[in-house]
Amino acid sequence: MNTVTFSAAAIEQIKKSSQQSEHGHMALRIAATMTGDETVDYGIGYDEPRDDDIQFEQDGISILVAPSCEELLHGAHIDFVEIEPGQFHFIFLNPNDPNYKPPKDDAS
What we know:
Elements: E1 4-6, H1 8-20, E2 27-34, E3 40-47, E4 54-58, E5 61-65, H2 67-73, E6 76-84, E7 87-93
Parallel strand pairs: 1-6, 2-5
Antiparallel strand pairs: 2-3, 4-5, 6-7
């Protein structure tokens, strides 16, 4: 079961990064923790699998999620977007985040 999904832009960027990185042969770990003020801190990076990790693959990328993060990340979507001209970042669209606001539908 995929706890987290990725946009095509995020997959493309992850593949580019893994080709340019010495850690590109490793799996991609996605993490999330709830802070005391009910904001969510997210992490993404290359890592070795652990025995209890939830592992899945999307578009040829091996993904790891620790069991402690599964509930918070369930249903999250990761995108890679231009925040400001020339500045691209991964963003987490997570309905489990108390501060989550669904993206506005441009058609409305």
